[in-house]
Amino acid sequence: MRTPIQRVFLTLAATLVAAVCGMLMTFVLESVLVFESAEGRLGQDSVQLLREVSAILNESHSVLRTMNASQAGFCSDAEIASFSKLLFTSQFLRDAGRIRNGKIECSAALGRENLPQKEYTPSATMPDGSSLYGDISPYQPHEMGALGQRIGESYGVLDPYEFKRLDSISVNRSATVIDSVNHQFRHPGRVPPALDGVVYDRNWGGRVGSYLMATRCAPHYPICMTTYVPIPQVMQAKRIQLISYTSLGGIAGALFGLAVSQLYRRNRSVVQQLRRAIARDKLRMVYQPIVNLASRRIVGAEALVRWTDEEGFAVGPNIFVKLAEERGFVGALTKLVVRHALHDFSKTLRAHPDFRLSVNAAGADLADPAFLPMLQREVHQADVPAQCLAIEITESSAVKSQMAIETIHRLREQGHSVHIDDFGTGYSSLSYLNDLSVDAIKIDRSFTQSIGTGSVIGSILPQILAIADSVEMDVIVEGIETEEQANYFANADGRILAQGWLFGHPVPPDEFHRIATEDEEKQLVPMTWA
Q1: What are the Cα distances from residue 386, in Å, to 350, 372, 390, 430?
Q2: Residue 453 — very low, low, confident or very high, per pLDDT cuts 50/70/90?
Q3: Could you tell me which residues come within 8 angstroms of residue 257 by beta carbon, excluding any fewer than 6 positions away?
Q4: C-beta separation of 282 from 276 below 8 A
Q5: d(Cα 529, Cα 522) in Å, to the nearest integer?
Q6: How confident is residue 189, by pLDDT bands cut at 50, 70 and 90?
Q7: DSSP-derived 3-state class of residue 365
Q8: pTM over 0.70
Q9: How far apart are CA 190 and CA 238, in angstroms?
Q10: Domain annotation for the chain: domains and CATH numbers
């Protein structure tokens, strides 16, 4: 018969063994779920990147087919003029022309003179007979390469800044282009030595060495995108969670951990995380100054929303805003942004009605009958003038439907200013501005970054500024980072406003008010910031 001390000892030993088994089981299960969650996120990033690249290639294909159908003489003045018109209405192309036997014969940007005197060799050939050129010059601004595409005897140069914009999707990646002629695979982008030389040409996800990988391939183009992350980085991000679950211990702890893990597995999708973040008010607001270029005085701010998911990863607005719109709950996100922005700036807006606070509205908001009443309620509760709140909408959503146009008119009737955001990247036309009766256009940062680079896109800027001035419309320039860019727009006619890193990064509200107060003190104009 065991003594009481022995029974206690055995009980403690059995409990300890059960706890160790439970901890090991829970740790293994949680590790698997961590990897699955990370692989799912990598797959979503790959799909997002493919969507961006496919949109660029789709437009390029359409333009080149139109050029091939030209009835004008080969490289005649009429044909070059028609190419120039196509180029102006294009979102992603920065030059187009004719190429024969690898040599450029004429160009919408360069005409027939001063053309590159070299023969270009395709870097890859697509199954449909089109070709890609990785060394097309002289369209290489600074250190970025310019990618060209040819169909028949027509070629186009893709805007390198569009590919640079993909850097906003902060994930390690490598693109695979499948050459149907040479049956070779090329990998633009840098990959770690452990992954160098490995071909990823099919949809899959898994572990390679010390990395987690996810590859997604485009359905209509021989292009695959691979995203990857070091496993130690994934484990470090989930370290606290792993410790918490493994500490449950015991068989009971292991069973409970299994149940929680299954719930976690079902409940950790990006969509569900975003819904919870909105419901629990877990997003944060930052504000970027908008200045009057003539005086360099802060006259407004753009409200921007930021989100860090439950795994500790920062998710870009271009991803989670689009996700909320696709899943039908972007209205809740817009309401959250409006409420926080008005709360953070209510005292400032009441004291300074000339100050403009800009918030972004999605295309789905313009079609939502609850959007306008929501704005009225929030403005009324904040007790601020409606004209202080400017609504920014994208160019494509502004002209998508008659309902959107009617919503814009009703916004202005309520007293709000309406701005066309990222102007020049969508329809690239000024003809509809009078119909919309908007108050300002925001010139996309790709135009700003073209200044001083010799890029073809820079030739469009004077036309935009001149027409905006002729209809007495304000111009807000995005992405100003250098004095050269600021001086270019400061010398233009009309009222030019600007935002960019030269004047201030997006910052939390308290930091913004401190900067604005210092700005007013420098201007010797008394102003109290809330």
Answers
A1: 10, 12, 8, 27
A2: confident
A3: 22, 25, 26, 29, 30, 245, 248
A4: yes
A5: 14
A6: low
A7: helix
A8: no
A9: 26
A10: 12-268 (no CATH), 278-523 (3.20.20.450)
